[in-house]
Amino acid sequence: MSTTSITVPDTPLVRLALARADDALVLGHRLSEWAGHAPTLEEDLALANIALDLIGQARSLYALAGEECGRDKDGLAFLLDEDALAYRRDERGYRNLLLVEQPNGDFARTIVRQFLYTAFIDAWWQAMMDSSEPRLAAIAGKAEKETAYHLRHSAEWLIRLGDGTVESHRRAQAALDALFPFTAEAFEPVTAAEFDVAPATLRAGWDRQIDTVLATAGLARPAVPWSHSGGRAGRHTEHLGHLLSEMQYLQRVHPGATW
Amino acid sequence: MIDLRARAWAAAASVCDPEIPVLTVADLGVLREVRVDGESVEVVITPTYSGCPAMNMIALDIETALAEAGIAGRVTTTLAPPWTTDWITAEGRAKLLEYGIAPPPPASSRRALFGETMVSCPRCASADTERIAEFGSTACKSLWRCIACREPFDLFKCH
Questions:
Q1: N or C: which end of chain A has fewer CB within 10 A?
Q2: Same domain, residue pair B41 and B62
Q3: pLDDT of residue A68
Q4: Residues B58 and B25 sit within 8 Å (Cβ to Cβ)
Q5: pTM of the model as a whole
Q6: Which member of A42, A141, A146 has the closest CB to residue B133?
């Protein structure tokens, strides 16, 4: 690789913006891997549309983080743009939840991952509309409109799969069993800042939402006595490195390339 | 100065959405404001969706329209307040219908997790319609079909 990696200052606002941006970008990239492979043309379009929303949200958040990075250096005015933040941080610099970097697997696995994440982030964005940090509140106001559709899309699919054939039910349940241990990480605090919404406050609402949809789908909520964690500290599963090596390849080999 | 603002607004408002070319950015409510400070003109637009790929093109088209009107101006983007389909003008809604796209239902209906607002077919006006897919050819549309006249159509999603 012919570019140097960057590190970013660790202020609460930068940490929060990067964590949420990385969640959105990594999941958006995962969904974009479905382009041309989804079960139907309509679903191909749906997954591409959701990916586009997520990457758009990530861009707004990276732009905010970039502005803040430029402020933190004493005397050295350097502005990190969204491309530098997305393409020039190493795996260890990424702060996303482990859930969103998990591979697409079959369609049921993708839908379950989407539903478990969206049921959380949709509520978080709604709460963040009242944030005392106006730039985050503005991004939240856009994002929650989009995640409302993502939630409905993934919930409808999960019900269709769970309440469908023996095979679709089996696959949906297997996906739930595999991914549920990754969900608790979403409720860990990212910052203690007053402009942040503590994820733990959304836990009860998330539980209700999950239980309602799983009951309608005829799926069982897995009992999980333990959970995976580490994404917010840069300790990832093996999957993120592979994703980044594909996503970052061009900018690493041809820095600043445009077309 | 007021004249400059009016001319700049008229130039910017003439720009059409690249994906729904019957609508101008003013019809859509994407054009928010024109600020004039001396000779400097700033046109403020807001995205429909966070990832709308048409935004760069709209900004470029507005700068071009300003230049053609002899105005040197720049385009900036704002996120707040968030764009809503309620900002589409009555004229814009009529143009959508004429073009074969069902205009958006009121935004108050968007938070229902399941179920759907009744949507009339833009061709035959029948209310006997069904949704084919939540996401359509662009971020702002979903795909529907009319049971009565059997034609598929786009719905501009409420947002």
A1: C
A2: yes
A3: 84
A4: yes
A5: 0.92
A6: A42
